[in-house]
Specification:
The protein has 125 residues and is an all-alpha fold. The protein has one domain. Helices cover 78% and strands 0% of the residues. The longest helix has 28 residues. It starts with a helix and ends in a 5-residue tail after the last helix.
Length: 125
């Protein structure tokens, strides 16, 4: 029963990540606003759409692959991406005088959730 609940808790952010990634592809203006960003132009816009859609789609697809295939290895890319994003936010706050983004808490919580899931849910290594 606990593994079923854990699976649902893991799939929910995966779906949100996929939706966010697709939204960056089809409506980057809304996506940028939701992340507190200004939508850039030219090469900057290309970087925003390409980098952020790939970030969120990779998160969601890897998590879904982990749950569907039961293979532990698919949990590691999203754990790494979320952990590095949180570290980057801390560095931006400590070194570059950026605001400390509240998303850091969500990133850390989901990374921990994925780590726990990587230990409990896989049927294969």
């Amino acid at each position: 029963m606990i593994n079923k609940i854990l699976s649902v808790l893991v799939v929910l952010p995966a779906i949100l990540f996929v939706v966010t990634g697709v939204r960056w592809l089809v409506d980057p203006a809304v996506s940028a606003t939701q992340l507190g960003m200004a939508l850039d132009q030219g090469l900057g816009l290309s970087s925003q759409v390409g980098d952020l859609s790939s970030f969120f789609l990779t998160l969601g697809i890897c998590i879904l692959l982990a749950v569907v295939t039961g293979r532990r290895m698919w949990y590691y890319p999203p754990i790494l991406l979320l952990s590095l994003a949180a570290i980057g936010r801390l560095i931006a706050w400590l070194v570059h005088d950026a605001a400390l983004a509240p998303q850091i808490g969500v990133e850390v919580l989901i990374a921990i959730l994925l780590f726990v899931a990587s230990r409990r849910l896989p049927r294969e290594a």
